[in-house]
Design a protein that fits this description.
The complex is a heterodimer of chains A (about 140) and B (about 170). With about 140 residues, chain A is α/β, with parallel strands linked by helices. Helix content of chain A is about 50%, strand content about 15%. Chain A has a single domain, classed as 3-Layer(aba) Sandwich (Rossmann fold). The chains are: A alpha/beta (about 140), B alpha+beta (about 170). At the A-B interface, helix 2 of A face loops of B.
C-alpha cells in the first residue's frame, strides 16, 4: 500500500494483514554528491514500485523521507509514529551510506542513468529480488 | 458485313465509359474510408499480442510477459505486466497474478511443499490450478482470468474478467 487516500482506507480496514512499514530514505543535499543522490532517488522509486507490485497486500510503503546534512531526526520520529500506529515491522530502505539504528534494508548503488531501458530493468529487478528475500526473512522471524 | 457505329453511338459509349471511371474513382475511396474502421476493430479488438507461440504452451503454468500503454493523468507510460498461462485440453487458460486478497503477486509452485498450486507469499494464500481459492486461506475469491485469442500462432491476451473455470 502507498500513502494515498484509497490505500490508506484499505490499510485501516485490513490492518491485521498489513503489518510491515517500509520507509525509503533519500538524501537531497546540494553538494558534490548531488548527482549520486539523484541517481539513488530514481533507483529507490523503481525499487518501491516493484515492491508494491509484489507485496502490495502486506507492505505499507511510506513517502520517502528527505535527508539533509545526514540529520536522521525526522526519520526516527516517523519510525516512532508508525510504531505507535501499530506496525509490527518498520524497516528503512536506503543505500549503504546511512548510519541508522533499527531494521534496515540496503540496496546497492547502481548507476542507472547511463543504462539502456532493458539493462536498467534487469539490474533493478535483481536488486528487488534481494530486498524481497530480506523482507520474507523478516516475516519468517 | 461489318456493323457501322454511328457518331452518336460512339460519343455515347465514350461518355459513359469515362463517366463510370470518374464515379468509381470518387466512390471507391469513400467506401473504403467508411468500411475500413469496421474491419480494423474486428480483427484485433483490445487484444495484446505476446511473444509466446500457441503451440509452446504446455499444461505447466508459465509466466507470460506483455506490455501496454497506460495513461496516468498527463503521464503516458509503457507498463509491463504478466499472466500465468497453461493449456487445459484444447483451451488456453490465462490467469491474472494478482491475489484476490490484498493484491500481492501470486506464483505457481512458489511454496515448495505445494508445487501444484498458486501461492501468495504475503499471507500464505493458496489457489488450485483452476484458480480457485483454497478455503481456509486468506484469498476471498478465485483468480481473475484473461480472454485469450490466437494471433497468427501467437498468444494474445484480452480483457480481464471473472474466473470462468470455477462456477
Amino acid at each position: 500500500m502507498f500513502y494515498n487516500p484509497s490505500d490508506l482506507s484499505i490499510l485501516k480496514d485490513e490492518f491485521e494483514y498489513i503489518d510491515t512499514a517500509i520507509i525509503p530514505l533519500q538524501k537531497i543535499d546540494m553538494n558534490g554528491d548531488a548527482k549520486i543522490h539523484a541517481n539513488n532517488i530514481e533507483l529507490i522509486q523503481m525499487i518501491t514500485m516493484q515492491l508494491e507490485r509484489q507485496f502490495r497486500g502486506r507492505l505499507f510503503i511510506t513517502p520517502s523521507i528527505s535527508i539533509v546534512n545526514d540529520d536522521l531526526t525526522a526519520a526516527n520520529n516517523y519510525r516512532e509514529q508508525l510504531q505507535n500506529y501499530g506496525f509490527k515491522n518498520i524497516v528503512f530502505l536506503c543505500d549503504k551510506s546511512y548510519k541508522i539504528e533499527g531494521e534496515v534494508l540496503h540496496f546497492n548503488q547502481i548507476p542507472i542513468e547511463s543504462m539502456s531501458q532493458d539493462m536498467k530493468m534487469e539490474m533493478v529487478n535483481d536488486e528487488v529480488k534481494t530486498v524481497m528475500k530480506a523482507i520474507i526473512q523478516i516475516w519468517n522471524k | 458485313m461489318t456493323q457501322r457505329v454511328t457518331r452518336r453511338q460512339f460519343l455515347n459509349y465514350a461518355l459513359m465509359g469515362t463517366g463510370s471511371f470518374m464515379v468509381a474513382g470518387i466512390t471507391l475511396p469513400m467506401a473504403r474510408f467508411a468500411i475500413d474502421p469496421l474491419f480494423a476493430a474486428g480483427a484485433d479488438g483490445d487484444f495484446i499480442q505476446t511473444s509466446i507461440r500457441m503451440d509452446e504452451i504446455t499444461d505447466e503454468p508459465v509466466k507470460v510477459d506483455f506490455t501496454f500503454e497506460q495513461k496516468d493523468g498527463w503521464y503516458e507510460s509503457e507498463v509491463s505486466d504478466f499472466a500465468w498461462v497453461y493449456r487445459d485440453g484444447d483451451n488456453i487458460i490465462a490467469f491474472s497474478p494478482v491475489c484476490k486478497h490484498l493484491g500481492c503477486t501470486v506464483t505457481w509452485g512458489g511454496d515448495t511443499s505445494n508445487p501444484d498450486m498458486f501461492f501468495c507469499p504475503c499471507h500464505n494464500g493458496y489457489y488450485t490450478k483452476d484458480g480457485n481459492n483454497v478455503p481456509g486461506t486468506p484469498p476471498r475469491g478465485p483468480l481473475d482470468q484473461f480472454e485469450v485469442a490466437d494471433s497468427d500462432g501467437y498468444l494474445a491476451l484480452g480483457a480481464l474478467g471473472a474466473n470462468k473455470l470455477v462456477g
